[in-house]
Specification:
heterodimer, A: alpha/beta, nine-stranded mixed sheet, three-stranded antiparallel sheet, 17 strands, disordered N terminus, B: alpha+beta, Uridine Diphospho-n-acetylenolpyruvylglucosamine Reductase, domain 2, five-stranded antiparallel sheet, globular, FAD-bd_PCMH_sub1 (chain B), Alkylglycerone-phosphate synthase (chain B)
Chain lengths: ~675, ~600
């Protein structure tokens, strides 16, 4: 099982990782122009002859797969095949990349300039690049970077160009095409564009999947896409989308390629360019439409310091080895391969497992700077702390994080106070250090009295920005913290009670965090192992008990996840108190938000993270999944029907008020 | 090409229709006297004590083998084959560079059969007494028993070379006719003995292996003395033949009357008619003559519950499932095939070889597919991949004159420099045409025209002949490899057209990868060829060999890799076997996902 191999390394702290090298250093000492015009002769897959993008288009249009769908559609609609073929061509024109080396060189030149201004260092694991070079020649390659910023689009291509490796073809959302020039520029640097939704459009699906498969089968270029589907506004990894991944796997299942290598790439930013933008968006200010003028206005960000970027190219993962013993490929033998059909249950489950595994691999190799530890501590102490205590606390957390296998970029010779100070320096907009105390920054009261909502809003921007840094480290603590919370909530300390609470929490939060489906036992074991290792708990014959020494650790862990627990409870409370029986889906987010604002202003609730629309949407998905909400469609209008007793139970269980009930247990 | 005056092969062909003329010294050419000719003929018909002329621990005749002589040159011994005494100058380099082998590192077999190491037979006395009273020849000799305890799977030969013997048959019987078989089967039923029919012993599906836990006395029923053509019916073009007849003998005898069956499996020097029926064999020239199921008109089989046969000899019937299809492929588990009526054809007037060079394997397969589509396949059409082409090239005998080597150089120059073919990618199709002279020439043109559309260049008869010759000597070459730490085997599959390329690439790659993972020190030879074309697909043959120096249990590694390769074949839409048979493979477990259940039930020993 994918999830089993994931945990084969019992102690995550022992995970071996490569060293980094700064690639900007060389760039700072040499000519950008020379760099942009350097000789670029990448090695290719098994000596495949490079092929013009127009050739790929022709191959797609002439493919049996597409011709079959065109004929089928023509039979169904009565339209001439030529007309449908024409539509297919139009789709392809809109979609296809036009990789053009000149444009790539231009981008390389510009990015060089920008990177040198924006970032102190761009650090990359050279070993990963070496492995990539090997992998490119052996099997078709799928690059799977994490997605936290627009920068992700450019940075992988930039690095591959720098290292003389084949440039990837990148799946991008259609919204980019709205930007004048830039859309086309991206296209010429290897992006291809897909519509955000095309559920029912068979022709679109056929063109799209055949396009991806043609590139992959022939190994013309590595395919790059974001498993998370969209930029994570919260810096937490998002639940993976499996559509593109399953298309990319099909050539292997059907025997058209021997294997496919999947390379997880973790890109971590010390300071995300879109930081404040994300927080505003989460608070309900809609995302600005991508536009060229917007991009130009964004130039002012060039004047600030964004610290380091770390890019970690993970071990290539062989699809063949993952599928060994799990997928019976002969199921594809009984139908011509050009007729696409719904993949079987086993394939769907497998693709989903692989997607989770890849996101987990991305998470594990995310580099964490000391600042994320500082942010974690500050969020638990919103009224500020003594600078000295903060440094001590950060050093303590560092130890804990390392024991749990975090990939910390914190060299031994840097003292805690220096690490804290450098973090604070990089984020002056989020924190203030005055008179030996450190606290989250709040806008000074401006002239004239402002509405309390506005103040709240401004403060929330700071909190959510700060939370986005804390979120980067959550995956390290997630499993032990779920155990700590389960111990709080469980009616007794008996092992099975704790386990069922753990399972319950895990289930509730499975839209919020990356928790591989079906891996409860492994997760529980890992949590027990880690907490025992740092002597926070003791596992007795029947019970799991906290040790005296471990109480601070456990309460710290619970506190770290408290905002989520509270958030879920608040939403439940809203649904119980404010909603009669049903509400339109559209008004859900606004409803929760205004309810939360009211409670915060009245002082009943202190947690501002509840205002995050990301959290609210995750609760919605979780409640739908658990059957506490039901969707019903009447024309355009989607309504949510509320099952109050179910929601009540969930809220109470999360609050630890009711001993876990039987019907709830049945879910575990 | 072993005969340097090629012209003699292009003329009308009358003496011998079978492909074996490539290989075997034909008496007419060598001006032998009548008596030696008679003697020579007798050799093709196997004696009761086969070990007198055949190897007990390797392939074929005792006097014929490849070896590296004192100068380190490869040489083929004996006078039985045309290759006899020839030198193969480039084989050594090919051998050493392909396998990382070294002539200094030898792994010779144990010298002689040590009869004392063999467990005495577990005799069924009442059976033996009754058999003696009937006067049916039999033997309890160790040598006879060892000879019939195995087929030619790698693990079987490897064990013999190391002097290891598993469970052996406890005795050997030689029935002379159908009635003898009926009596033997009755006796076996009566006295609870176990019978294993034995024909040519060329099985590669482990079907001759004695079950190690068998407590009953095992009797090997050797059909070699049932080797007569009982009658020839010229009106219906059929011949009624005893099942123990060896392929080359059947063909030779029919040729004398102006006929042939045209059924020429690669093992036809030693395999028997009964074996073909029992394994659903396929012949090289099936495009003209059909596979065994197309050739058979009538089968007589002795089972523990009586004789099974149809009551008429007709081309087709529609009275329920065809009983022949139960018998064909049953690999001796249901009974002993004793007599078969086969279709025969008048000898073809004319035979012509040919070959086509393609720039790559993909183009070659596309061409074969087109040929199959137009249903104009010659008697045989085969496509070797690049590695096999190189292999065939290494088997070029020493050229006699500077002129020939100059010509070879010129040809190579033309193909690689002038036509731009990459010597590491090009591949060769070998062709054999048969029929009326005029039609053959017409047919030839049609095929070459199709080939040209796929970038194919006609490459002469010489290359064609060498391609077919490789098939026959491969088993001798395997013995040579085993003398130098190289083991190998072939296996085959049947696959739909659209999956041929994917299957070939994936299986070859899987073999290479599995070898590496299992600690094989040098990359293996992993090569394939498309050997038959059908309307809906093709037959693909894989050769796979590696240097096993440094491996503790090479046969186990070999079997694991082969198992993986078969798994890959199934995953890519191929079958477990096209013509080797493979009930033992089915029995390996239901994980193959085929009709194992049915056949497991049908496995009857009596």
């Amino acid at each position: 099982m994918a999830s089993r191999t994931l945990y084969s390394q019992r102690d995550p702290a022992l995970k071996k990782r490569d060293d980094f090298e700064d690639i900007l250093e060389e760039r700072r000492n040499s000519s950008d122009l020379k760099y942009a015009l350097k000789c670029y002769m990448p090695v290719l897959y098994k000596g495949v002859t490079p092929c013009k993008p127009s050739m790929i288009k022709t191959m797609v249009l002439q493919s049996e797969q597409l011709r079959y769908v065109v004929t089928e559609l023509s039979k169904e609609t009565g339209e001439a095949t030529e007309v449908i073929q024409g539509e297919a061509l139009a789709i392809l024109e809109e979609m296809a990349h036009k990789l053009h080396l000149g444009t790539v060189r231009f981008f390389a030149y510009m990015l060089n300039k920008a990177f040198k201004v924006l970032y102190q260092r761009i650090r990359v694991n050279e070993d990963g690049i070496q492995r990539l070079q090997q992998a490119i020649q052996e099997h078709p390659l799928v690059l799977l970077p994490s997605h936290r910023s627009y920068m992700d689009f450019l940075i992988v291509s930039y690095l591959l160009y720098t290292n003389d490796l084949a440039l990837p073809v990148i799946a991008a959302g259609m919204d980019f095409l709205g930007m004048k020039f830039v859309g086309e520029m991206l296209r010429m640097s290897g992006a291809f564009f897909i519509r955000r939704s095309f559920g029912g459009d068979r022709l679109y699906w056929a063109v799209f999947s055949e396009y991806v498969k043609t590139i992959l089968r022939n190994g013309y270029a590595p395919i790059e896409f974001f498993l998370e589907g969209t930029r994570s506004r919260t810096c937490k990894s998002l639940t993976p989308k499996v559509g593109l991944l399953s298309i990319a796997m099909e050539p292997f299942f059907k025997g058209e390629v021997f294997d496919v290598s999947m390379v997880p790439i973790s890109i971590s930013y010390e300071r995300v360019l879109e930081e404040a933008l994300y927080a505003r968006e989460l608070l309900g200010v809609p995302k600005p439409k991508e536009s060229t003028s917007g991009l130009l206005k964004a130039r002012r960000i060039l004047s600030e310091d964004y610290g380091n970027i770390h890019v970690y190219f993970g071990q290539p993962v062989s699809l063949r080895s993952l599928a060994q013993g799990r997928i019976n490929r002969s199921q594809y033998n009984l139908m011509p391969r050009h007729i696409s059909r719904r993949p079987g249950e086993d394939v769907q489950v497998f693709v989903n497992d692989v997607a989770y595994k890849m996101v987990r691999l991305q998470e594990e190799s995310m580099v964490l700077r000391p600042w994320v530890l500082v942010a974690t501590i500050l969020l638990q102490n919103p009224h500020g702390v003594e600078a000295v205590w903060l440094a001590e606390q950060t050093a303590w957390l560092r130890g804990l994080a390392q024991a749990f296998g975090a990939f910390l970029d914190w060299p031994d010779h840097i003292s805690a106070s220096r690490a804290v100070a450098s973090g604070l320096a990089l984020h002056p907009n989020l924190v203030r250090a005055e008179r030996g105390r450190v606290r989250l920054a709040t806008e000074p009261k401006g002239p004239g009295a402002r509405a309390p909502e506005e103040d709240l809003f401004n403060h929330a921007v700071t909190v959510l920005s700060c939370a986005s840094y804390r979120n980067q480290v959550l995956h390290v603590f997630l499993r032990p913290a779920l155990l700590a919370m389960a111990m709080d909530v469980a009616p007794t300390s008996r092992k099975d009670d704790v386990y069922s609470c753990f399972g319950y929490l895990r289930d509730v939060f499975s839209n919020e965090f990356i928790l591989c489906p079906g891996a409860e036992v492994q997760d529980f074991d890992e949590a027990c192992f880690l907490l025992t290792k740092c002597s926070a708990i003791q596992i007795l014959k029947q019970d799991i008990v906290a040790t005296e020494r471990g109480r601070p650790t456990l309460s710290f862990l619970s506190a770290m996840f408290q905002p989520f627990l509270l958030g879920y409870q608040v939403v439940c409370r809203y649904l119980c108190e404010e909603v009669a029986e049903s509400l339109p889906e559209k008004s859900y987010v606004a409803g929760v938000r205004s309810y939360a604002v009211k409670r915060i202003l009245s002082g009943e609730l202190a947690c501002l993270e509840v205002l995050s629309s990301d959290l609210q949407k995750n609760v919605l998905a979780a409640l739908l999944r658990m059957g506490a909400l039901r969707k019903s469609k009447a024309g355009e209008l989607v309504t949510l029907r509320v099952n109050k007793s179910a929601i009540n139970t969930i809220e109470n269980t999360l609050g630890g008020r009711v001993s876990t009930q039987k019907p709830v247990l049945a879910r575990l | 090409m072993f005969v340097l005056d090629n012209a003699s092969w292009t003329g009308p062909w009358v003496t011998d229709s079978s492909i074996l003329h490539l290989l075997i010294c034909s008496s007419t050419k060598e001006e032998e006297t009548g008596t030696t000719r008679e003697k020579h003929r007798n050799c093709t018909h196997l004696p009761q004590w086969r070990q007198e002329v055949m190897k007990w621990n390797g392939w074929g005749y005792s006097d014929s083998r490849f070896l590296f002589n004192k100068k380190g040159q490869a040489e083929f011994t004996g006078r039985r084959y045309r290759l006899g005494g020839l030198i193969f100058p480039s084989l050594k380099d090919w051998f050493e560079s392909t396998f990382g082998a070294n002539l200094q590192h030898k792994s010779p077999p144990t010298a002689a059969l040590n009869s004392s190491a063999i467990t005495p037979p577990n005799l069924n006395e009442p059976f033996l007494q009754d058999l003696k009273s009937m006067g049916i020849p039999h033997s309890l000799e160790a040598e006879d028993r060892v000879f019939r305890a195995h087929g030619h799977c790698l693990h079987e030969i490897f064990a013999l070379r190391e002097g290891r013997f598993g469970r052996l048959p406890d005795m050997v019987v030689w029935p002379n006719c159908h009635d003898d078989v009926v009596k033997i089967v009755e006796l076996a039923c009566q006295h609870n003995a176990c019978l294993i029919p034995y024909g040519g012993g060329t099985s590669v599906s482990s079907a001759l292996e004695c079950p190690p836990d068998e407590m009953r006395s095992i009797v090997s029923l050797d059909t070699s003395q049932m080797n007569h053509i009982l009658w020839i019916d010229e009106k219906n073009l059929t011949a009624h033949v005893e099942a123990g007849i060896v392929g080359q003998e059947l063909e030779r005898l029919l040729n004398e009357s102006g006929f042939c069956t045209g059924h020429e499996p690669d093992s036809m020097e030693f395999s028997t008619l009964g074996g073909w029926v029992a394994t659903r064999a396929s012949g090289m020239k099936k495009n003209i003559y059909g596979n065994i199921e197309d050739l058979v008109v009538h089968i007589k089989m002795v089972t523990p519950r009586g004789v099974v046969e149809k009551s008429c000899q007709v081309p087709r019937m529609s009275t329920g499932p065809d009983i022949h299809h139960f018998i064909m492929g049953s690999e001796g588990t249901l009974g002993v095939v004793t007599e078969v009526t086969l279709k025969i054809r008048p000898l073809p007037e004319y035979q012509k070889y040919g070959s086509v060079v393609f720039p790559n394997f993909e183009q070659g397969v596309a061409c074969l597919r087109e040929v199959a589509k137009q249903r104009c396949a010659p008697a045989s059409i085969r496509l070797m991949d690049n590695a096999q082409f190189q292999f065939g090239h290494a088997l070029k005998p020493q050229v006699s004159s500077i002129f020939t080597s100059f010509l070879d150089g010129l040809k190579k120059f033309y193909i690689t420099k002038f036509k731009g073919f990459d010597t590491h990618r090009l591949c060769v199709a070998t062709l054999l045409f048969e029929g009326d002279r005029e039609k053959v020439l017409q047919h030839e043109k049609q095929v070459y025209d199709i080939a040209a559309k796929f970038g194919g260049l006609a490459a002469g008869e010489d290359n064609g002949q060498r391609g077919y010759m490789l098939t026959f000597v491969i088993a001798y070459l395997r013995d040579l490899g085993m003398d130098y730490y190289v083991i190998g085997e072939s296996f085959e599959t049947s696959v739909p057209w659209d999956r041929v390329l994917d299957l070939c690439r994936n299986v070859k790659e899987r073999i290479t990868r599995e070898c590496k993972e299992r600690g094989v020190q040098f990359p293996p030879m992993s090569t394939c060829r498309v050997t038959q074309t059908y309307d809906a697909g093709a037959c693909v043959y894989f050769y796979f060999a590696f240097n096993y120096r440094g491996l503790a249990d090479p046969v186990h590694v070999y079997e694991q890799v082969e198992h993986a390769a078969r798994e890959e074949i199934l995953a890519n839409g191929g079958s477990l076997s096209h013509h080797h048979g493979g009930m033992a493979l089915h029995d390996e477990g239901s994980r193959w996902g085929t009709s194992a259940g049915i056949w497991a039930g049908a496995r009857i020993r009596f």
